[in-house]
Design brief:
The protein has about 375 residues and is an alpha+beta fold. The chain has three domains: about 5-115, Butyryl-Coa Dehydrogenase, subunit A, domain 1 (Orthogonal Bundle); about 120-230, Butyryl-CoA Dehydrogenase, subunit A, domain 2 (Beta Barrel), CATH 2.40.110; about 230-375, Butyryl-CoA Dehydrogenase, subunit A, domain 3 (Up-down Bundle), CATH 1.20.140.10. About 50% of the residues lie in helices and about 15% in strands. The chain has a four-stranded antiparallel β-sheet with strand order 2-3-7-6, with helices on one face. Strands 1-4-5 form a three-stranded mixed β-sheet, with helices on one face. A two-stranded antiparallel sheet has the order 8-9. A hairpin with a 2-residue loop joins strand 2 (about 140-145) and strand 3.
């Protein structure tokens, strides 16, 4: 196994880093304060080829791989996780199932315009009563003439308030079996959909919605793949995305660490940089070591995706370790800053708020531990 990055991947990292510093960084404060995502970024990302980074060129993508996808995520999240969250909800959860299981017509109608930044995608899975537990899914779809009627609710759906279409998971039969859950591509606006913007403590610059679905009609040609029973596609998508989210967490950890390192070099007490004091130096040393460990765990997970043999337990381990590391490292960064750490002119407080989202979002750490425990033969 070779853990080095290719020259093309290193060039991609440098391109995204320059873009993030020059074009994303100036937008961060306003987006966080106003809690509104700058929609024009989707067109800009498309121009740079970042929306299709992990999709084949023949399908309209940039032709890179999951390792490259994680490089993009890390560099975007280093500057602002809210922007990276909207990017991720669109480029992976919102369109990956369509690329993977959609009909040729669905790909042409939804996937390709999304790669061009012409349509914004969202993924409607989490529900008020179920959270991370897909087995508790209550949204139902009833077959009617020419299509389906969807009824239910979705919660914490990234991009929902600005989406042109939402991929919605619904139960087509009452039994708790994989073939009873299907995905529907629902164009917006839809008279049966009521979407409310949710205010958040973390990732404020990313639009998040609560969705009420009341007898919403969805035509037959918007049933993903033209068939029921796409539950396995959901599971595969989540496993791969959990590795991606871990890269987002790595980026947040790096952003917090780099801010703390710079502050420790600049801030002086009794004529000495505070980094010269052992308490601060040891804290920074721990942060640096943990980031290095998480970095290789994340890219090992991405490599496993590219080999086609990622499993749910491995993805859960990667996501669990990276998300908890991001919380610890961003808290340490606040402590290095002292009183300045809670001032908004410094990024570490925002990064910590954003990092806290990911011990809950994309599958809570408790769910990840359950998945890992089941791989060990236990039944939590």
């Amino acid at each position: 196994m070779n853990f080095s990055f290719s020259p093309e991947q290193e060039q991609l990292r440098e391109t995204v880093r320059r873009f993030a510093e020059a074009e994303l960084k100036p937008l961060v404060s306003a987006a966080d304060d106003d809690e509104i995502f700058p929609r024009e970024l989707f067109r800009r990302w498309a121009e740079l080829g970042l929306l299709g980074v992990r999709y084949p060129e023949e399908d309209g993508g940039a032709g890179f791989d999951k390792v490259s996808d994680c490089i993009v995520r890390e560099e975007l999240s280093r500057i602002n996780q809210a922007f990276a969250s909207s990017w991720s909800a669109h480029t992976h959860l919102g369109i990956w199932p369509i690329w993977k299981a959609g009909t040729a017509e669905q790909r042409e109608r939804f996937f390709r315009p999304a790669l061009r930044g012409e349509k914004i995608a969202a993924f409607g899975l989490s529900e008020p009563d179920g959270g991370s537990d897909i087995r508790a899914l209550k949204t139902r779809a009833e077959k009617v003439s020419g299509g389906w009627r969807l009824t239910g609710s979705k919660m914490y759906i990234t991009n929902a308030p600005i989406a042109d279409f939402i991929l919605v998971a619904a139960r087509t039969r009452p039994e708790l079996t994989p073939d009873a859950v299907s995905l529907f591509i629902v164009q917006q606006p839809n008279p049966g959909f009521s979407i409310h913007r949710m205010k958040k403590e973390g990732i404020r610059g990313s639009d998040t919605g609560l969705i009420h679905i009341d007898e919403a009609f969805v035509p037959d040609d918007c049933l993903l793949g033209g068939r029921e029973g796409t539950y396995p596609v959901i599971l595969e998508s989540l496993s791969e995305n959990r590795v991606g989210v871990a890269a987002n967490c790595l980026g947040m950890a790096r952003g917090a660490y780099e801010a703390a390192l710079a502050y420790a070099r600049e801030r002086k007490v009794r004529g000495r940089p505070i980094g010269d004091y052992q308490a601060i130096a040891h804290r920074l040393a721990d942060m640096a070591a943990e980031i290095e460990a998480v970095r290789w765990l994340v890219y090992y997970g991405a490599w496993r995706v590219d080999q086609g043999d990622i499993d749910a337990a491995t993805a859960a381990k990667v996501k669990l370790m990276a998300s908890e590391a991001a919380v610890r490292i961003s808290e340490s960064a606040i402590r290095v800053h002292g009183g300045a750490g809670i001032m908004r002119e410094f990024p570490v407080g925002r990064i910590h708020r954003d990092a806290l989202v990911y011990v809950i979002g994309e599958g809570t750490v408790e769910i990840q531990r359950n998945i890992i425990a089941r791989s060990l033969g236990f039944k939590p």
